[in-house]
Amino acid sequence: MRSQEFNRDLLAFLAVATTPFHAVAAMVARLEEAGFIGLPADGDWQLQPGQRYYLTRNGSSLVAFVAGTEGEPAAGMRMVGAHTDSPCLMVKPSPEKQRSGYFQLGVEVYGGALLNPWFDRDLSLAGRVSFAGPDGRLQTALVDFRKPLAIVPSLAIHLDREANQNRKINPQTDILPILALQAGPEIPDFRELLRQRLLVEHPQSTVQKVLDYELAFYDTQAAAMVGLREEFIASARLDNLLSCFTGLQALLQADGKQSCLLVCNDHEEVGSLSTSGAQGPLLLSTLRRIAGDESGLLSLVQRSMMISADNAHGIHPNYADRHDDNHGPILNAGPVIKINANQRYATNAETAGLYRLLAAEEEVPVQTFVVRTDMACGSTIGPITAGGTGIRTLDIGVPTFAMHSIRELAGSEDACNLGRVLRRFYNYPGSLTPA
User: Fold this and answer.
1) Which residues pair with 139 in a beta bridge?
2) CA distance 314 to 330
3) What is the number of other CB atoms lying within 10 angstroms of the CB of residue 162?
4) In the beta sheet, which residues pair with residue 408?
């Protein structure tokens, strides 16, 4: 029953978190409802024990933390990290295309997207728009059309008899979404379409001119419980909004005695090197301000631990040979500790050991993932955070299928179970360093 309530809330979150900007806005709304206080990007922070705080960067990354009543930050912070971005198709700056009587938009592939599933989907469009108001000043607002307005039709098999054997996708020419039939000789002005949408979503604004945008197409099919007994969750953006939501729920349920923190970074799917990415200054600069001085920061770093939560590859029954024989995670068999000897994951024996202790206390099963030795291994914000801050880190994730597809699949018990362990981690009263 506990997982059913958790999953209903997760599905509601996924419905509104259509871009990193919308995900952060949704998380901020939940944080403020729970009494978290927004902090300015500049100016002094007057932090008080027992208070809860948050800050955002670029509107697409977030840090939320609790100043513990019994464990001050310098005594060690319990941290969870995730990322807000997912592979997608982003609209180019000058996107208008007129081909064979159809109006299309040029797109750029963001991240390592699995492109085949993007065909024949009802697509909508969302993101952030900058515009000039009547006084000429720069303003920004979020937009989400929230209805099907585009599609990328497949080429019929009659015109490509080898499609099921060797069809290749050219991202420059083959995945341009169709928005409309061309009504006349004039190509529609995309920025004017955005201006009209801004007026619909923000009627109080007076948009004079759209200046620029960061917009992504997304699948309008709602997240759903799937399976004979609803064993699965099917949705877009499970990688990694599932972890963002799980970490947020755990933080909201923290008892406040220990100092704890959640960071959700943007741009993980493209390397994390940005102002709001894990390879940028967001986390370390926040920790420095929390600690108060360099001495406090050194103590905080040495006594803290980070759990990097990012989905893991479940063993696919149709492709079981793609996994190491002893390390094939099964959906709904527990969160997965991710290990790589070449440091593509940041897990070590200490961080994995503490997680196993916490999971045992919650009676949550634990699995491990090690990539086949003859295959390349992906990575996460874990090694980036560990290398950039010096904080000991564990990489863990919920097992999923179809990672980086437009629709991914996870077990309906795993996220809730991970959330239980993360909550216990946030409330863990002992030292985070081994005796």
Assistant:
1) 131
2) 5
3) 8
4) 235
Q: Are 302 and 385 in contact (CB under 8 A)?
A: no
Residue pLDDT, tens place only, 248-296? 999 999 999 999 999 999 999 999 999 999 999 999 999 999 998 999 9
Residue 120 pLDDT greater than 70, yes or no? yes
Tokens representing residue 146 in the block: 């929230």
Say whether 87 sits in a helix, a strand or coil.
coil
Q: In CATH, what number does 2-86+236-427 get?
A: 3.40.630.10
- Number of Cβ within 10 Å of residue 319's Cβ equals 9
Write the DSSP symbol of residue 157: G
Which pair of tokens denotes residue 201? 């979503």
Q: Read off the tokens for 37.
A: 């206080």
- What would the pLDDT profile of 192-234 be if each residue is shown by its tens digit? 999 999 999 998 888 889 999 999 999 999 999 999 999 999 9
Render pLDDT for 320-358 as a digit per residue (tens, 0 to 9). Answer: 999 888 888 999 999 999 999 999 999 999 999 999 999
Number of neighbouring beta carbons within 10 Å of residue 428: 20
Residue 176 pLDDT level (bands cut at 50, 70, 90): very high
**CATH code 3.40.630.10 region(s) in the chain:** 2-86+236-427
Q: Which amino acid is present at 103?
A: F
* pLDDT band at residue 1 under the 50/70/90 scheme: very low
CATH 2.30.250.10 in the chain is located at: 88-219
For residues 316 and 257, what is the distance between their CA atoms, to the nearest angstrom?
Answer: 41
The radius of gyration of the chain from alpha carbons, rounded to an integer in Å, stands at 22
Q: For residues 214 and 92, give the distance between their C-alpha atoms in angstroms, rounded to a whole number.
A: 9
Provide the CATH topology of domain 88-219: Aminopeptidase i, Domain 2 (2.30.250)
Contacts made by residues 350-353, CB under 8 angstroms, sequence distance 24+: 350/392, 350/433, 350/434, 351/305, 351/307, 351/392, 351/393, 351/394, 352/394, 353/434
SS3 329: coil
